[in-house]
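Training component of the fellowship. As part of building independent skills, the fellow (R.M.) carried out the full modelling exercise for a liganded target. The chosen ligand was 1-O-phosphono-alpha-D-glucopyranose. The inputs are recorded below so that the supervisory panel can assess the work.
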Amino acid sequence: MTYKVRTAVFPVAGLGTRFLPASKVVPKEMLPVVDMPLIQYAANEAVEAGCRTLVFVVNRYKHAIADYFDTAYELEHRLEMKGRADLLDRVRSTLPDGVRCVFVTQSEARGLGHAVLCARPVVGDEPFAVLLPDDLIWNRGKGALAQMVEVAERERGSVVAVEDVPREKTGSYGIVSLADAGQAHGDALRMAAIVEKPAPERAPSTLGVVGRYVLSGGIFGALAATPPGAGNEIQLTDAIEALIEAGDPVWAYRFAGTRYDCGNKLGLVQATLRYALDDAELRAPTLAHLREVLDGSG
Ligand code: G1P
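Fellow's submitted model of the complex:
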């Protein structure tokens, strides 16, 4: 059987309390970085990696996400009448041809693992990707997920994105320990264990999980058998640990790119600056304004 990643799952049923009061009405995934919402960056990364079915795991407060990916006939008609081909392109670029969206409801907040399990009827037994849109990964070259899909299809196994995190922060991440160095296949590092949000003194390493995963279909069986863990939620991390214990190959991958934690205010500010400074039109005026602010004149 081929190992091909065609489906991406976006667990987007979280509350977004760090962005209250904005997130009272605007789902945090719809917060913009310059001119695109976070969910669009994640969708683009999935499409670039070859995914053609995008599964959004939502709840009743996230209807804006479905609206966003839907066709906006009236708006498109008006832009057409005004001859604004440039804007029409932007509006239509939310979903390229040949890519379909599926919306699945997670009616109870039972954790990330439970959210992923909700996508099982759509995904089936195939390998698939999971992207947490809060983690925005900036890179000039190939996107992080495309890099991971290459590794997963080559190794025919699950791949989890990792990066080094400060030891005092291990309690915010899944933390990975690696099998002996002999088991590294090029850029893929064989995982020996993974644990959700360990206290710094108990963390087996400082290699933290970032919100990008390629998972073999077997994860669904593991998730169905996973009891609530950290925070009394069904954790994806615990199901990945079960895969490892069952002898399934799971690889840790240090992606090329910079990750911004846009689930936090500071991360969103930093990402906004990064994307603004990367934009041909915005770079000079953004730098000029930063200089004014830093000089105390702005
Ligand atoms: C989730 C995962 C955690 C991972 C993190 C990456 O945690 O449970 O293992 O390290 O995403 O962003 P959350 O940030 O949803 O608490």
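The panel noted the following from the submitted structure. Residues 112, 132, 135, 173-174, 196, 208-211, 236-237 surround 1-O-phosphono-alpha-D-glucopyranose (CB under 6 Å). Residues 157 and 249 are 5 Å apart (CA to CA).
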